[in-house]
Write a structure and sequence with these properties.
Elements (H helix, E strand, L loop, with lengths): L3 E10 L2 E11 L4 E5 L6 H8 L6 E6 L2 E2 L5 H7 E4 L11 H6 L14 H13 L15 H14 L4 E5 L7 H16 L3 E5 L3 H7 L2 E6 L2 E6 L1 H4 L2 H8 L1 E8 L2 E9 L12
Parallel strand pairs: 3-8, 3-9, 6-7, 7-8
Antiparallel strand pairs: 1-2, 1-4, 4-5, 9-10, 11-12
Helix pairs in contact: 4-5
The structure holds adenosine-5'-triphosphate.
Adenosine-5'-triphosphate binds next to β2 and α1.
Organism: Oceaniradius stylonematis
Protein name: ABC transporter ATP-binding protein
Keywords: ATP-binding, Nucleotide-binding, Transport
Length: about 270
Amino acid sequence: MSLLAVRDLSVALGKRAVLNGIDLTVESGECVGLIGPNGAGKSTFLKAILGQAPGAGDIRLGDAESRTMSALERARIAAYLPQEREVHWPVSVEVLVGLGRAFGRSAVAAPSAKDQALIEAAMERMAVTGLRHRRATELSGGERARVLIARALAQDTPLLLADEPTAGLDPSHQIALMATFSDLAREGRSVVACLHEISLAARWCDRIVVLNEGRIVADGPPATVLTDELMRTVYGVEIHRADSAQGLVVLPTALSETEGNDRPDGA
Ligand SMILES: Nc1ncnc2c1ncn2[C@@H]1O[C@H](COP(=O)(O)OP(=O)(O)OP(=O)(O)O)[C@@H](O)[C@H]1O
């Protein structure tokens, strides 16, 4: 059974049609890179899956329609890393990561032994164990990002929806995170991650889904999807593409002569 099955999803925000006729099925064991230019609709798509954006169409999470599920039912299937990385409460890192286990239990109850083991494993995976007693409001941007990813991992769900999880991470933590996603997929879980780092998506994802102007314009293995032509038409960039011992290398190198979306030079 697929973990996520989206059929003919359309979302309008205000008068703006943001997503149009999206069909996407994600099976267990897939690490999916959701890519596309700024404003393509990636974040809106993740929010719609979680019932946080209004829309028409079917969204099945596990074996139920997402919009009829309670927040607790959804939280058992999908963990979510939002794009915003703000932390407002000066709680310790350990307590913040522990909130990933707080669904369905009293806020004042101590974590069970199983919860504590999952919290420790998530902190270990994100290399934030040494920060456990620090206040979450007093971390660097990259440290805070890793703590919030650890909170999502502690939720221990079959599906992880992560919005720009690599933003703000240094190269070693970016690679470690993508390797973790790849491991999660090998364990039979699924990850859908919005990514702007095309090189990371090419190297670590089994599948790339490209959103452009609210529509899926490509879906498949990185080597098939990340072509010169796609990168030119969707992003308006030229790429260096090569096969290496570590896998596919795709590096944006220059703006194209032809038009892409919303070119930074306004052309
Ligand atoms: N609350 C809102 N009301 C109206 N339009 C919105 C709202 N939120 C987002 N949008 C618009 O919806 C479109 C898609 O936004 P979204 O945040 O999903 O894009 P994205 O692909 O995640 O972009 P980015 O890569 O910049 O994060 C954009 O044009 C954005 O301006």
